[in-house]
Amino acid sequence: MKKIENFLFFGISALGANNNEMKFFTYILISEKDGSLYIGQTQDVQKRLDKHNGGKNVYTSEKRPWKLLFAKEVDSRSEAMKLERYLKSLKKREAVFKWIDGKNHGV
């Protein structure tokens, strides 16, 4: 586990920054406006965070600014999507925070 500032990153060697290896991430953002969470998946966490904060998405534009709360590197896009679906199925914020605080970050 690697901790940078207030963000938790699990298994991340680079946040999708220009590197030839295909990396996929499932990420959780927290709105600094109202504390709501947004869960997604991407190949480049920083680029995706910039898009959310740039108002390019209807849902996230209303709740800006966003801060990265958690990101996990996985082996494939399908694995990232599976984890994203699982986290979204938890529904309640408390369940998501409990999952983040747990030792096993699988589905």
Task: Write a structural description.
The structure is a single chain. By secondary structure, the chain is of the alpha+beta class. It has a single domain, classed as GIY-YIG endonuclease (3-Layer(aba) Sandwich). The protein has four helices and five strands, in the order E-E-E-E-H-H-E-H-H. Strands 1-2-5-3-4 form a five-stranded mixed sheet. Strand 1 and strand 2 form a beta hairpin. The protein is globular, with a radius of gyration of 13 Å.
Summarize the structure.
By secondary structure, the protein is of the alpha+beta class. Helices cover 33% and strands 28% of the residues. It has one domain: GIY-YIG endonuclease, CATH 3.40.1440.
Task: Look at the structure and give the mean pLDDT.
Answer: 85
Structural class: alpha+beta
Q: Characterize the main sheet.
A: 5 strands, mixed
Please state the overall shape, judged from the principal axes of the Cα atoms. globular
Distance between the termini: 18 Å
H/E series, N to C?
A: EEEEHHEHH
Q: Give the strand line-up of the largest sheet.
A: 1-2-5-3-4
Q: What share of the residues does DSSP label as strand, in percent?
A: 25-35%
Question: What is Rg?
Answer: 13 Å
CATH topology: GIY-YIG endonuclease
In total, the number of strands is 5
